[in-house]
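Researcher: Please predict.
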Amino acid sequence: MEPPQGAGMTKAEDDEDRKRTQHIDVPLGVRVRAIRENHGLTQADMARMLDISTNQWGRHESGANRLPAARLWQFCEALNIEVAAVFRDQPFVAVRPSAAFVPLPEPQRPFSLHDDASGPADPAPNESGGALVQRIGAAVRALSPERQRTALAVIRALKNEDPE
């Protein structure tokens, strides 16, 4: 059985592991700082609520130290928000492919909005861009607001566009 992440690591291994997660730790820290500030709290206030030092909380907000899941849950409980709210409206590119990442095989044909659970329908190669956009819009409008934000994030990622 492997030790928990961070347990039993040498300093060099821990430093290397931090480099691999910095792209997650820093944006998460920025997000929790913004949420804390929106609640009108100082770092010292938040640290007191979580029973940790102000310096420790500051390192979480800066991304210098990882924010453990349990502490994130405590943060959300203290502010009476859902954990999902921390990740809402965040770009969905936080996870980089790793050596363990295995891409799915390419589909035999592109996905069509005509496809449904019963299987693919005939593609509509002559469909105008406007009609396709209307169908996409109708499909997105049928989603919950949270799913709409996710759909927008996916479309932006496909365009390789920075989120607003």
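Model: The helical segments are 11-38, 43-50, 54-62, 69-79, 83-87, 129-141, 145-159.
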